Batch of 2 targets.
Target 1
Amino acid sequence: MIIALDAFGTDHAPLPEVEGAVLAIKENACEKILLVGKEEVLKKELEKYYYDTNRIEVINASQVVTMDDKASSSVRKSMKDSSLVQTILLHKNGLADAAVSAGNTGAVMAAALLNIGRIKNVMRPAISIHLPTLKGNTVMLDVGANVDCTPDYLVQFARLGSLYSQFFYKIDQPKVALLNIGEESVKGNELAKKTYQLLLVEPGINFVGNIEGKEAMKGEVNVVICDGFVGNVMLKTLEGAAISIFRMMKEQIKKDWIAKIGAMLSFPVYQYLKKKLDHSEHGGALLTGINGTVLVAHGSSNAIAIKNAVRFSARIAESGFLEHAREFFESSTSQT
Amino acid sequence: MIIALDAFGTDHAPLPEVEGAVLAIKENACEKILLVGKEEVLKKELEKYYYDTNRIEVINASQVVTMDDKASSSVRKSMKDSSLVQTILLHKNGLADAAVSAGNTGAVMAAALLNIGRIKNVMRPAISIHLPTLKGNTVMLDVGANVDCTPDYLVQFARLGSLYSQFFYKIDQPKVALLNIGEESVKGNELAKKTYQLLLVEPGINFVGNIEGKEAMKGEVNVVICDGFVGNVMLKTLEGAAISIFRMMKEQIKKDWIAKIGAMLSFPVYQYLKKKLDHSEHGGALLTGINGTVLVAHGSSNAIAIKNAVRFSARIAESGFLEHAREFFESSTSQT
């Protein structure tokens, strides 16, 4: 797999991208990386590392999309030579099997929509992430692309998530649940109630009903669907909860020297937990419904997170998810 | 303060309620408790305890509203002699300064709405809770009463939350924030964007802008407002996150005997954290906007949680919040 990597996405770009690319090659996360950005800067930075130079190619792009650029206007107008748009174009033009950027999610989505577009008949692409759960792998979508949804969008998210779970995780009949405030079918807002009824009769979807936030974290369903507003609030609450709990723990431990010794002894456990809850370990968010494999890594990614995102994108690209999603939606004439 | 306490709300009723009432009296959480439910059962249970018998009075109510009863129909029809409705009526009729129940939140809300009603000009009552934060006290509303909201409802929630923070916590100009998926004013769904604009021009509200879930947990704002669907998802995600993190920790600790010793030494820290994150320590949820002081405790409450809820309801009743909320809304003619 050849992966196009935007070298100017993270907060500390291009350092994590360059080191992450080298790590990815060393660990055989993919065959080759097209590292996109200011050529001189990248070549100079790459000189610091020892690696198979045939497997990282620098592609020049003179501009950078910053976090402050308004997502769509930035990619629409002046940013044609930005590292982000060039990364997307390499994938679009078949020179790369997937595109990875740690830039602003809105900008990446806009660039992907404008340059690659949606899978035919997909109404809205959705951002999918992996929930950190007690067991197994749970995909959740949408976590931010569509803040106002209709029931039809959510049914398509269910399909995309289901196909993803099926081909990426090799799960036979993925259990799909609707994020809601109670298990009963009558629970929830208008959107949830209407979506519930549609999912009940949607063929080929293993709909297991409503799920609450706390149940979702147990990891007993494979796909959780929700509108992008609620999904984003939930995702950020999870991040915040983990950070807050560790901080509270740290502060309490400071006050008590016996607990301090205890904490030192249990340090590997904290490390494991931090890793498990850290989104960077999950490799990034997939723009499901885009007619390509485009992955967004977190802006705060370090080299390891970038390496994971590269590996993750290669695994998705070879999973067959995209081809099967295309096949399903292109042959479904009921959708527009 | 005299508190009416539904003795048949919790999952293990009436044991936690009876013991909780005795504890509340022993700790002077209030002057007197009217314990509502099956007289014979309660009197027999109370005989097990040593306490000032003048300060707990049993009020007979022969029926019980179960979790399975559909909220509104149960209180509307046959449940007039239920412990829940009788508890609410004692408060309505001025025999108690506040009402506390650990029953189904929907049923308590329905009973309060039907028997006490809303403060004049309040469009929708909201469920308010205290967020467990790193510092200070943050009130969040609505966490489940109104799953489909209009911007006007949210502006009223902001007012209710602000008055609550002002009178209960004695905070001079409570900082009010809107739960959203980003800080910028253009972020969010239609509801959030419209509410943002209304709050900007709402007199007497110290609106500090949008807040994300993870920021809310830092406790730097006093009031967080949101629609009841999103609020409920966030609340349950927090609960789930805490449970999951502790469970993951436990499982990892089991695998490593050094970490096990460490965990034993840091045990007081875990206890502190569990307590801090445990909603029962926060005393319950207030039905803000109801023309009375009605508190819902968690169905899984133990005696200590019930005691805390009683204490909490007494503190709210004496805070002046209700009187000031009435004064504000009754004189606001722009609302219907």
Target 2
Amino acid sequence: MIILLDMDGVLADFEMGLLQTFKSKHPEKPCIELQDRTQFYAHLQYPPDSRQLIQDIVYAPGFFRNLPPIPGAMEACRALAQSRHELFICTSPLSKYEHCVLEKYQWVEEHLGMAWTRRMILTKDKTLVHGDFLIDDKFPIKGVRTPTWEHLLYSQPYNRSVQGKRRINWQNWRSMIPD
Amino acid sequence: MIILLDMDGVLADFEMGLLQTFKSKHPEKPCIELQDRTQFYAHLQYPPDSRQLIQDIVYAPGFFRNLPPIPGAMEACRALAQSRHELFICTSPLSKYEHCVLEKYQWVEEHLGMAWTRRMILTKDKTLVHGDFLIDDKFPIKGVRTPTWEHLLYSQPYNRSVQGKRRINWQNWRSMIPD
């Protein structure tokens, strides 16, 4: 089987990196704790006067490179790589790609090793990529095609209202993906 | 239909950029003119004492960003984008990704416009990407799957010995791709 792994919110802890940076750069501003996040895009949930601050953090050099791994994700990646499945990292860069694109490769090299950078697929349209499963925290995932993969929704506070998808996380994944 | 366009050797003139840089940096060394190139990888055709020089040029900052467009390619892209087909740029970055990855996006933005960067798919394995046609100068194109696309071989001097593929170039493409 071919398993596609999304990166932000599945391997790299985008929300944790964003919250920590926001708190440290703007301690006087109200922030939204991770468990209180209810929308996929943080800047849409923050007060209007913080939206540009959120964007500035995400677009700044070093943001993607310095994201912490999601707890359990690196161990799951290494276990999956030892299985009979083919693994790829399928990630959509920001439209403002300047730092994001290179730093995603650097992040994978740092946390998983150089060989894993060969598994990377960068695309705005994941429906074009063949796979049996796509593990992704975003919903819905749109594109030009009907995908071949089943979207397993990686559970995060901001997607808890999504209905009708099988959910996965790095604690329960072994029961979701056949050996 | 979904048409996947390779980048180096199809949109961006990798061989021309390499030859011009080699001549200017190493005027004392023998070089191989474009029409005399017979192997896909230039460093394998150059004399042993020039192979590292070739690699150094390709890995240097600015190499990918400064490649000239293949004659006719930008016009063909714009014409295809006006057609009913879906177009994507499907390109494999160097394993030494440091400059190549970002510069490929910059090249597309410069020569085709920012909106085209959304059409980019970076992957080492193109067999995973769904399409009806892949226009690519490399042969063979290997990966984990049997591709859905027909590989139309973009004709270049270094692939002229390849047999059994339909060939395309930016002069004859209209007869190869249905309206």
